[in-house]
TrEMBL record:
<dbReference type="Pfam" id="PF02515">
    <property type="entry name" value="CoA_transf_3"/>
</dbReference>
<comment type="similarity">
    <text>Belongs to the CoA-transferase III family.</text>
</comment>
<dbReference type="InterPro" id="IPR050509">
    <property type="entry name" value="CoA-transferase_III"/>
</dbReference>
<dbReference type="InterPro" id="IPR003673">
    <property type="entry name" value="CoA-Trfase_fam_III"/>
</dbReference>
<protein>
    <recommendedName>
        <fullName>Formyl-coenzyme a transferase</fullName>
    </recommendedName>
</protein>
<dbReference type="InterPro" id="IPR023606">
    <property type="entry name" value="CoA-Trfase_III_dom_1_sf"/>
</dbReference>
<dbReference type="GO" id="GO:0003824">
    <property type="term" value="F:catalytic activity"/>
</dbReference>
Length: 490
């Protein structure tokens, strides 16, 4: 990456000229990977708006998925000592996959609409957006607003109207342990210290300990039908971005064990989509026996993906420093809302919240010209971009580990993806909103679907949009109820 991109983030890099191919080049070379591989990338589809938005979501979608496939192909080429295979990601398929959690069906039925009190609410001086995917967040917000647990959206709006937006945000995110964020413009966001704490480059990888290179590990044995066959991944995460990282690694053959807590609520709509390709185990890390089972998995894994707030797992002995003691070559991949630096690093946050507080929603509404106060993007663009970029970072760290050895740390944040997407520029005026959307399964061409039996019934879902010449890409395990598998490899 350039010196400017390594800077503290106090200014935004202008990448308005970049195509999807340019983005692939920018990220790939920024991770110090071989430029020779870039000739193997094929990106069919015309430049221009690919979803109804002023933001260049199609550019980032095609590039991020291509990067993840190219990184997998790099592992395949290295361990088999062969030239880079061709990687192909069609634009239309990529943007449809960015909406995968909204487009699958089970027994012919589409996914139900989630949420009861969430979305935009007026305050005394502006607006806030409330996150309501988790029952505990709903309960916490209602408690903060002094409302009963069966309160409706109208009652919530009556209470938020009595608050100043920033005051409600601070009480909710700092004291209330929920997710409520004030609607800001770009200018208001840029006045915050947190905006300057976010790196201009979306993936940070760092070697954190020394050991000899591990070329002889099972991951580098040749002759496999999938690029990452043999890679062992433990994933502790919820809500799209980090689970998508694990799902992407699984599509390329990694053995992914998704560990969730029996103490946290299920999210069936999301869990079914992002559980594809994974084993699913439930462990209570407060329980000594379950904690030991988790450490046993981590002792033998290559990668640990976690999607909790920075530092929040340290009290359970799951900091990278502690994990290195039992697994000197572990790669730890962290997904967070605002990154590991800055005053908001410990805050909870989600795609919609970051879009709200960073100016994206305001800018999108202004470009659309429909008189809205805020307009979300037509997909969870930050979540999906972040998930693929975290997978890219994992595979880049894996590549560097084969050369330098040691344990590696990978960091990606939703706010970092926001900053990168914004750096690509927006289409002029109201351009972009005329693009086709894919709101319902019936809007999607049949060729992008695959069907299979699951524990929930026949599931029709979006195929992975990347293909790699000479190897299989896709998910071998159907989604199943959380906790269906035993905590063991193989």
């Amino acid at each position: 990456m350039t010196d400017a991109e390594c800077a503290d983030g106090s200014s935004t890099i202008n990448r308005e000229h970049m195509s999807a191919r340019d983005v692939v080049h920018n990220i790939w070379t920024g991770l110090h990977l071989s430029e020779a591989a870039l000739a193997s990338v094929k990106l069919p589809g015309a430049e221009g708006p690919a979803l109804p938005s002023s933001f260049k979501i199609g550019t980032l979608a095609q590039a991020s998925i291509a990067l993840s496939a190219l990184a997998a192909a790099q592992v395949h080429a290295r361990r088999n000592q062969i030239p880079f295979p061709q990687v192909t990601v069609p634009l239309e398929h990529a943007v449809i996959e960015y909406k995968s959690e909204r487009l699958y069906t089970i027994e012919g039925q589409p996914t139900p609409v989630r949420g009861t009190i969430g979305g935009l609410h007026k305050t005394s001086d502006g607006y806030v957006r409330i996150h309501d995917s988790f029952p505990n967040h709903v309960q916490g917000t209602l408690k903060l607003l002094r409302l009963p647990l069966d309160a409706n959206r109208h009652q919530v709006s009556e209470r938020t109207a009595k608050w100043a937006a920033i005051d409600l945000e601070n009480c909710a995110t700092v004291e209330g342990k929920t997710a409520v964020y004030a609607l800001r413009s770009y200018e208001q966001w840029e006045q915050l210290p947190q905006s300057r704490a976010i790196s201009n480059f979306p993936i940070t990888i760092k070697q954190v300990s020394q050991s000899s290179p591990d070329d002889a590990l099972r991951i580098m044995k040749g002759g496999n039908s999938k690029c990452l066959q043999g890679l062992r991944v433990v994933e502790m995460s919820r809500v799209i971005a980090a689970p998508l990282c694990g799902k992407t690694l699984a599509a390329h053959g990694a053995e992914v064990i998704w560990v969730t807590s029996p103490n946290l609520p299920d999210l069936p709509v999301l869990d079914r989509e992002f559980g594809r390709g994974k084993k699913t185990v439930q462990l209570d890390i407060h329980n000594d026996e379950d904690h030991k089972k988790l450490l046993d998995l981590l002792r033998e894994c290559d990668v640990f993906i976690q999607g909790f707030r920075p530092g929040s797992l340290a009290s359970y002995g799951l900091s990278q420093e502690e994990l290195i003691k039992i697994n000197p070559n572990i790669i730890v991949a962290n997904m967070s809302a605002f990154g590991p630096e800055g005053p908001w690093s410990g805050r909870r946050g989600f795609d919609s919240m970051v879009q709200t507080c960073s100016g994206m929603n305001v800018s999108e509404a202004e470009r659309a010209g429909q008189g809205e106060a805020a307009r979300p993007t037509p997909c969870q663009a930050l979540d999906h971009s972040g998930g693929y970029m975290l997978a890219v970072g994992v595979m880049a760290a894996l590549y560097h580990r084969t050369i330098k050895g040691g344990s590696w740390k990978v960091d990606v944040s939703l706010a970092g993806m926001m900053k990168y997407l914004r750096s690509l520029g927006q289409y002029p005026g109201s351009t972009g909103f005329e693009a086709q959307d894919f709101k319902r399964p019936e809007d999607v061409p049949e060729r992008y679907f695959e069907s299979g039996d699951t524990a929930f019934g026949t599931m029709k879902s979006i195929k992975h949009s990347a293909s790699i010449e000479g190897v299989q890409v896709g998910w071998d395990r159907a989604p199943k109820p959380l906790g269906s598998d035993s905590p063991a490899w193989g």
